[in-house]
Amino acid sequence: MILEKIKRLDPVMTIAWILAIISAFFIHPDKEYVNYIDFRSLGILWGLMIIIQGLKKENVFDLLANKLIKKFNKDWQLMAVLVFICFFSSMLITNDVALITFVPIAIMILKGADKENLLIPVIVLQTVAANLGSMLTPIGNPQNLYMYGKTGMSLISFCGIMFPFSLVSFIGLGLAIFIVNKAFASVNNLEKSVEKDLENKKEVDKLSTDNRGKLAILLFSLAFIVAILTVARIVPYLYFDAVVLIIILLMDRELIASADYTLLLTFIGFFIFTGNMGRLDLVRELLEKLMNGREFIIALITSQFISNVPATLMLSGFTTCYKELIIGVNVGGLGTLIASMASLISYKAYTKEYKENTGKYMKEFTLTNLIFLVILVALWAIL
């Protein structure tokens, strides 16, 4: 029974807390532990999770996808919509939510159209697009939200750091879609399949237009605006969390359980570990020396093995060159399957239905990620 429970634990969260507990033997718990934790980042992240789940429950993203798909039914058009909707939506709803929402839609449409040969390249590009789009904004992914709060820089300054990389990524994705379309696609059956799939989703559209649904969408949309103001440091984060809490108590109390508390606990575990390590003179001096002038490379390499969120939390306490660290962990989301945990969402969604193609998926995923990684590393070197 205990072993089964351990197997179900999130591995990254488990590692974070094992490290936190080990570090506690060197720096015994005291009042400084509270100061380790960035409550502002955690509070904003919790509120955003609830808002996105609330909008998702009201089928807002399904409706958006339906409207877009109705307008585009040729192979290259549909590929572009499925990929770029992940790229742009991830800037506001985070990379993992973008993939949770739009990868199943891609599978549904392409499978129904007898275009299963396009599934792997499209899903891989959706994954890359979500990871690359999310790096532009503070609310695109957890590591950006944390670094935005830690650095205290303005919204424009933060977005400016990653803008060249996002622009090149956008162009690269466009070229990738063109190449995939030339290599795999041919126009047939897509229009009929799209119409059929949208017909099956009419009931979902109706469910989202009742009075309660409209009110929920309005309230969660207003809360999202408050979230943006909170990120911009106009509204205190406690006020934002209070607004979100009031909305879910009025509209849907079950949403309280919808936040990814595993991720929040992972953050806390790494906050404790890095906080304690920073108080050990030998460790602090060693890591500061290692990081000095190598923030980008160290962040990129570390992300490949423990993913970019924990890499950010672990390394941010040992450097003040935050710009290079931000670029490193965001570009570091490319590469291995765990470089960005959001990539696992697409992997699981595809391999659940096509287990026999796991090796093929991994080969194309790795190759595509490495190509984009090389391009962005080259851009970093030029800049």
Q: List SSEs in N-to-C order.
A: HHHHHHHHHHHHHHHHHHHHH
Structural class label: mainly alpha
Mean pLDDT figure? 84
Strand portion: under 5%
What would you report as the Rg, rounded to the nearest angstrom? 21 Å
Q: Termini, distance in Å?
A: 54 Å
Low-confidence runs of at least 5 consecutive residues: none
Shape annotation: globular
Kindly state the percentage of residues in helix.
over 70%
Q: What is the strand tally?
A: 0
Quickly count the helices.
Answer: 21
Largest sheet: none
Topology:
Blueprint: H1 2-8, H2 11-26, H3 32-36, H4 39-57, H5 60-71, H6 75-93, H7 95-112, H8 119-133, H9 142-151, H10 155-184, H11 190-200, H12 202-207, H13 211-231, H14 237-251, H15 261-278, H16 281-291, H17 295-306, H18 308-315, H19 322-331, H20 343-353, H21 358-382
Defining traits:
single chain, about 375 residues, mainly alpha, 21 helices, globular
Report on this structure.
The protein is globular and about 60 Å long. By secondary structure, the protein is mainly alpha-helical. The protein has 21 helices and no strands.
In short:
The protein has helices at residues 2-8, 11-26, 32-36, 39-57, 60-71, 75-93, 95-112, 119-133, 142-151, 155-184, 190-200, 202-207, 211-231, 237-251, 261-278, 281-291, 295-306, 308-315, 322-331, 343-353, 358-382. It has 21 helices and no strands. The chain has 383 residues and is mostly helical.
